[in-house]
């Protein structure tokens, strides 16, 4: 298993109230899978991602990611994974290629290796023509591709993408998906992404893990999940009495 969690919990204390963002998650993800975590806003997807990528320690429970324990060996996890967060793009005023080189250097690459690798990822994400531009001059979809390029610099085998298509117009969303699927097909990467777009999870993911109120409430291929229903929203409605579509709107 490339990701394995047991009873993962994360609470936040807000003044006197306790927010139970993640309430005991057990997930196993195999090498090479393309998994979508689907859930409405506030379901706990980002919190789960931030724990798996070692940005946030769990309140309790354990997880190993790419063979390393997230609490005991966070450096090991970070060396082996890429993380594309929401809006964590490169600095506004630096050229994209320079940002990528800096990213590579922060992973311990020599300047020459980082420059070579930057050219490779620019090519993979169709960004070569934009290499000298700054993120501030790019469209939303182009910026998202830069975010992905940043996450790929150190050649991780496992990439976490937090809502990679949120906020993009339909054409840019389709384009981002083309690139995500290419990473899967051409490089055989394991991809774990979160989304609240039902249709995307349904059409693109091999496996969908449905999260609600900090818990996994369903887990399977889209076809398995929909065996008694027409759409994934019907599945969510049957399980919770609510519609993701309405909550995401
Ligand atoms: N730093 C924090 N302090 C307090 N509460 C938090 C914090 N981060 C997240 N939460 C709360 O934890 C719950 C889960 O949030 P999270 O961002 O993980 O959900 P999500 O499924 O990623 O939602 P979205 O799709 O909107 O990003 C929410 O109730 C949120 O308000």
Automatic annotation (TrEMBL):
GO biological process: response to antibiotic
SMART domains according to UniProt: AAA
Domain ABC transporter, chain residue ranges per copy: 3-238
Subcellular location per the Swiss-Prot or TrEMBL entry: Cell membrane
Coiled coil: none
Keyword NADP: no
Name the record gives this protein: ABC-2 type transport system ATP-binding protein
GO terms under cellular component: plasma membrane
Gene source species: Kibdelosporangium aridum
Domain of life: Bacteria
InterPro entries for the chain: AAA+_ATPase, ABC_transporter-like_ATP-bd, ABC_transporter-like_CS, ABC_transporter_ATP-binding, P-loop_NTPase
């Amino acid at each position: 298993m490339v990701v394995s969690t047991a009873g993962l919990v994360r609470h936040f204390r807000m003044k006197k109230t306790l927010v139970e963002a993640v309430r005991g998650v057990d997930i196993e993800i195999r090498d090479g899978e393309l998994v979508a975590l689907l859930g409405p806003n506030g379901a706990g997807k980002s919190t789960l991602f931030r724990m798996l990528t070692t940005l946030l320690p769990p309140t309790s429970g354990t997880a190993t990611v790419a063979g390393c324990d997230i609490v005991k060996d966070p450096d090991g996890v970070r060396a082996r994974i890429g993380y594309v967060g929401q809006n964590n793009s490169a600095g506004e005023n630096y050229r994209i290629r320079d940002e990528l080189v800096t990213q590579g250097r922060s992973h311990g690459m020599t300047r020459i290796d980082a420059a070579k690798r930057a050219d490779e990822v620019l090519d993979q994400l169709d960004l070569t023509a934009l290499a000298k531009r700054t993120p501030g001059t790019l469209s939303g979809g182009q910026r998202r591709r830069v975010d992905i390029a940043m996450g790929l610099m150190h050649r991780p085998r496992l990439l976490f993408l937090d809502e990679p298509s949120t906020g993009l117009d339909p054409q840019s969303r389709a384009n981002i998906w083309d690139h995500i699927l290419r990473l899967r097909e051409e490089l055989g990467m394991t991809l774990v992404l979160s989304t609240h777009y039902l249709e995307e999870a349904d059409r693109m993911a091999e496996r969908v893990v449905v999260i609600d109120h900090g818990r996994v409430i369903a887990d399977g291929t889209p076809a398995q999940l929909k065996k008694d229903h027409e759409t994934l929203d019907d599945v969510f409605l049957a399980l919770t009495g609510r519609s993701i579509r309405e909550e995401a709107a």
